[in-house]
C-alpha cells in the first residue's frame, strides 16, 4: 500500500521552495474540471482526479461537462457501496478497491473519488446507494479494505464526503446541528480509520455545514480533528464547488479547490488567493503547506522524476476485473424472506416462467449523478435469468409498471449546485394498462403452478445525487401491482433492485423477498445464480429496513431533508441503535440475511488475553448446502452512567461451511475497542467498566451471550 513517507515530504518541501507563487497557485485549484495545472519546468505533472466509487467515470472535456463520446473510456462497473457493505466480507471490499484502483490507473488517473463513507441516516438520502451502512464499524471495516485495495495501484483513494453529508437537499448550504458524541461515534469513525488505519492519501471535504461552519472551512473538522488529532498529512480536496470563501478556506487544512464551473482562473484558490497573498492578506506559507501536501502525495504515487518509470500501469475493462465484479455481486444479494422455501428454484422442474417488472429489463450504470459509469456491459435481471437458465425454460416478460427510462443529462453537473424539483412523472393510465396485462399473465401462470418473479424497486431517478426521495414508498404504483401479484400467487418471488429501503405494505402476504442493490455489471447473472441455487445467498443488510418512514429516528426525532437547517437530534440513536433501544418493530433488522442453509451457534468462550478480547464459539452448518455465515458481535455497555444504545456492533466475520461442518470461530478485538464510547460528561472517549457481549446472525437474532468487565 502506498503511504506518505518522510522522504516524500522532504521532496515536496524542496520542490515547493523552487516554485513561483503563480506555479504554486496553479497546483491547488482546478485548471480543468478534473485536474490541476502542471509545472513542466520542474517536472511536475497535472494531478488528475476522477469519479467515482463504482468505476471510473467517462471522460468529459477539460472545460465542459459534455462527454467525449469515445469508446476508450468504457470500464468495469462495480457493485455500489451498499452492495459491497452487504457482503460483510472485507476481502471482497478489498477486491472492489483493487479493481477500481487498477482501472483508475489504467485510465491515467491519480486520485479516484471514493469510497463514499457517509452514514445512512435516513432511508431517503439520495446518495444512500453509494454509501455503505448506517453503522460506523461496518463502514470503517469495508471502507478500509476498499481503500487499501485502491492504493495498491499507485492511485490515491479519496474517502468522501468529510463530514456528515447524509442528505442531498440543500446540500451546499444546509447547516447540520450534530452533537460531539454523534460526530465521534457515528459520523467520523470511518473517516478516522480511512486515514489512520487504511492510510488514505487524500480526503474530500463535504459541501454542507456542520454546527454552523462549512466543512471546507471548518477549523474543527480540518485542523483540530483531521490534521492534528488524526495526524493526516495527505491532500484534502474540496467537493466540486465546496470552497466558497477564499480567506476562510485558505487558513484551514484544505489544499485543492475543485469546482463544477469553467472559470478556472477565478476559482477561490486561483486568482482571488493569488491576489490576497500578494496584498499580504494571506501568508504565502499557507499556500506552501497546501502545495507540499499535493506534492507529497504525488511523490508517494510515483508521479515525479524517474520514479514514474516504476509506477504501476493499471488496466481496465478486463475479463479478470469483470469476473471480480461477479464474485462481489454474488455475496451482496440479501435473501430477506423465504418462508415457503420457494427459493432456490429448481431449473429442471420448470418449463415456463413469468418475469414481471420494469427493473427486470433495465440497467442502472448510466445514472445516479457523479457515480455514473459507462460500463462495457451490464447484465440486466432479464438478461441474466435468460442467459443462465438457457433454452429449456420458456420465459415470458411483462413490464408490469411504467418507469420512464433514465437518461442522465450529459451536462447535469453544470447545474448541480442548484436545488432541484420533484421529477416523478404521473403516468397512471399507462401504468394501469401494463399492470392489467401483467396480472392477466400471472393468473395464467399461477393456474398451472408456474413460477412468477417480480423485479421492481427504484432506479437512479430516485437514488440520485442532489435529490432526496420524498417518501419511502415504491414509485410507479408498484405496490398495487405487487398486491395483485400476491393475491394471485403469494409465492411470487419479489426481487428489488434499489439503493435504499422501501416501505412494503403488502409484506404480510409475501413469502419470498430478495434484495439486489445496484450490483454492478454482472448483477443480473449473480441474481440468476442466486434464484436458481448455484449461489447460496450470504449478503446481510448493512442497514435497518424500518416498517415505515415515521419510525425512522432521523425523520421523527431529528429533522431531515429540510433546507437551511437540520437537527441530528436523534444523536447516536441512528438506525438499529434506535430501533433496538426503543423496541420499535422493524421490517428487517440490521445484519439480517438468510441463505439456503441454517447455522447453529454454541459454546461461547470469552477470554481476555493481554489487551485483546477473544471470543471463541462453535458454528455448525445444519443444512444440506454449503454456505457462508456472518456472525456479528454486539456489545451492551454497562456502568457508564450515561445513556447508551442497547446494542452496538463491534466486530464480525464471514465463515464458509460445508453441509454438516462444525467449526470453531474466533472474533478478536482490542479491549479498548470493545468498551470505548464517547463520554458526554468527560467530553472525551472513555472506557465502560463492563459490557455484555452478544453474537448473532443479525441485531434481531442474537444467539450467544457473554460478558467482560
Ligand atoms: C459530488 C462528488 C464528486 C464530485 C466530482 C460532486 O457533485 O458530490 O461526490 O466526486 O462532484 O464529480
From TrEMBL:
Signal sequence annotation: none
SUPFAM superfamilies: (Trans)glycosidases, Beta-D-glucan exohydrolase, C-terminal domain
Keyword check for Membrane: no
UniProt entry tagged with the keyword Hydrolase: yes
InterPro entries reported in the protein's UniProt record: Cellulose_deg_GH3, Fn3-like, GH, Glyco_hydro_3_AS, Glyco_hydro_3_C, Glyco_hydro_3_C_sf, Glyco_hydro_3_N, Glyco_hydro_3_N_sf
Entry keywords, A to Z: Carbohydrate metabolism, Glycosidase, Hydrolase
Pfam family, one: Glyco_hydro_3_C
GO terms under biological process: carbohydrate metabolic process
Source superkingdom: Bacteria
MF terms in GO: hydrolase activity, hydrolyzing O-glycosyl compounds
Limits of the Fibronectin type III-like domain: 629-699
Family: Belongs to the glycosyl hydrolase 3 family.
Protein name: Glycoside hydrolase family 3
Lineage, top ranks: Bacteria, Bacillati, Actinomycetota, Actinomycetes, Bifidobacteriales
Amino acid at each position: 500500500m502506498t503511504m506518505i513517507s518522510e522522504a516524500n515530504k522532504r521532496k515536496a518541501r524542496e520542490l515547493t521552495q523552487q516554485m513561483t507563487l503563480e506555479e504554486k497557485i496553479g497546483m491547488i485549484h482546478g485548471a480543468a474540471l478534473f485536474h490541476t495545472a502542471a509545472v513542466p519546468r520542474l517536472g511536475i505533472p497535472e494531478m488528475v482526479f476522477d469519479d467515482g466509487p463504482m468505476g471510473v467515470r467517462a471522460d468529459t472535456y477539460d472545460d465542459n461537462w459534455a462527454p467525449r463520446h469515445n469508446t476508450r473510456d468504457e470500464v468495469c462497473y462495480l457493485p455500489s457501496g451498499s452492495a459491497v457493505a452487504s457482503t460483510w466480507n472485507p476481502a471482497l471490499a478489498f477486491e472492489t478497491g483493487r479493481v477500481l484502483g487498477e482501472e483508475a490507473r489504467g485510465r491515467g488517473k491519480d486520485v479516484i473519488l471514493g469510497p463514499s463513507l457517509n452514514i445512512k441516516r435516513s432511508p431517503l438520502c439520495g446518495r444512500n446507494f453509494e454509501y455503505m451502512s448506517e453503522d460506523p464499524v461496518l463502514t470503517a471495516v469495508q471502507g478500509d479494505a476498499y481503500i487499501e485495495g485502491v492504493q495498491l495501484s499507485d492511485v490515491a483513494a479519496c474517502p468522501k464526503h468529510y463530514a456528515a453529508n447524509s442528505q442531498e437537499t440543500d446540500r451546499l448550504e444546509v447547516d447540520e446541528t450534530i452533537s460531539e458524541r454523534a460526530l465521534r461515534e457515528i459520523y467520523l469513525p470511518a473517516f478516522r480509520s480511512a486515514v489512520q488505519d487504511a492510510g488514505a492519501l487524500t480526503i474530500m471535504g463535504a459541501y454542507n455545514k456542520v454546527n454552523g461552519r462549512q466543512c471546507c472551512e471548518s477549523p474543527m473538522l480540518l485542523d483540530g480533528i483531521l490534521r492534528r488529532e488524526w495526524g493526516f498529512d495527505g491532500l484534502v480536496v474540496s467537493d466540486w464547488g465546496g470552497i466558497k470563501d477564499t480567506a476562510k478556506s485558505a487558513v484551514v487544512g484544505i489544499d485543492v479547490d475543485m469546482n463544477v464551473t469553467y472559470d478556472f482562473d477565478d476559482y477561490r484558490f486561483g486568482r482571488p488567493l493569488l491576489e490576497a497573498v500578494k496584498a499580504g492578506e494571506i501568508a504565502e506559507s499557507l499556500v506552501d503547506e497546501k502545495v507540499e501536501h499535493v506534492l507529497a502525495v504525488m511523490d508517494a504515487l510515483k508521479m515525479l522524476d524517474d520514479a514514474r518509470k516504476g509506477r504501476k500501469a493499471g488496466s481496465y475493462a478486463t475479463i479478470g476485473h469483470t469476473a471480480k465484479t461477479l464474485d462481489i455481486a454474488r455475496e451482496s444479494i440479501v435473501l430477506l424472506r423465504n418462508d415457503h422455501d420457494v427459493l432456490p428454484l429448481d431449473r429442471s422442474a420448470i418449463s415456463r416462467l413469468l418475469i414481471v417488472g420494469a427493473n427486470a429489463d433495465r440497467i442502472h450504470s448510466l445514472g445516479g449523478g457523479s457515480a455514473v459509469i459507462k460500463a462495457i456491459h451490464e447484465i440486466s435481471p432479464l438478461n441474466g435469468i435468460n442467459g443462465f437458465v438457457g433454452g429449456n425454460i420458456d420465459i415470458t416478460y411483462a413490464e408490469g409498471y411504467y418507469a420512464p427510462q433514465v437518461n442522465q443529462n450529459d451536462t447535469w453537473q453544470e447545474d448541480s449546485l442548484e436545488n432541484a424539483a420533484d421529477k416523478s412523472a404521473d403516468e397512471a393510465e399507462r401504468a394501469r394498462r401494463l399492470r392489467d396485462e401483467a396480472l392477466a399473465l400471472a393468473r395464467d401462470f399461477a393456474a398451472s403452478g408456474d413460477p412468477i418473479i417480480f423485479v421492481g424497486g427504484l432506479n437512479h431517478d430516485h437514488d440520485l445525487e442532489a435529490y432526496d426521495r420524498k417518501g419511502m414508498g415504491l414509485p410507479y404504483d408498484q405496490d398495487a401491482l405487487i398486491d395483485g401479484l400476491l393475491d394471485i400467487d403469494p409465492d411470487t418471488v419479489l426481487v428489488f433492485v434499489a439503493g435504499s429501503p422501501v416501505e412494503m405494505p403488502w409484506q404480510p402476504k409475501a413469502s419470498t423477498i430478495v434484495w439486489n442493490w445496484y450490483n454492478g455489471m454482472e448483477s443480473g447473472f449473480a441474481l440468476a445464480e442466486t434464484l436458481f441455487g448455484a449461489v447460496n445467498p450470504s449478503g446481510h443488510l448493512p442497514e435497518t429496513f424500518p416498517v415505515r418512514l415515521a419510525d425512522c429516528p432521523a425523520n421523527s426525532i431529528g429533522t431531515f431533508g429540510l433546507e437551511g437547517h437540520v437537527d441530528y437530534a436523534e444523536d447516536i440513536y441512528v438506525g438499529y441503535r434506535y430501533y433496538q433501544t426503543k423496541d420499535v418493530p422493524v421490517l428487517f433488522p440490521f445484519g439480517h440475511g438468510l441463505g439456503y442453509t441454517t447455522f447453529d451457534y454454541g459454546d461461547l468462550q470469552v477470554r481476555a488475553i493481554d489487551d485483546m478480547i477473544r471470543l471463541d464459539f462453535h458454528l455448525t452448518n445444519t443444512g444440506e448446502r454449503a454456505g457462508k455465515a456472518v456472525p456479528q458481535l454486539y456489545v451492551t455497555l454497562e456502568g457508564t452512567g450515561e445513556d447508551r444504545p442497547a446494542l452496538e456492533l463491534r466486530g464480525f466475520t464471514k465463515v464458509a461451511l460445508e453441509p454438516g461442518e462444525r467449526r470453531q470461530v474466533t472474533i478478536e478485538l482490542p479491549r479498548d475497542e470493545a468498551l470505548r464510547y464517547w463520554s458526554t460528561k468527560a467530553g472525551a472517549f472513555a472506557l465502560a467498566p463492563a459490557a455484555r457481549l452478544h453474537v448473532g446472525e443479525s441485531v434481531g437474532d442474537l444467539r450467544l451471550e457473554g460478558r467482560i468487565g
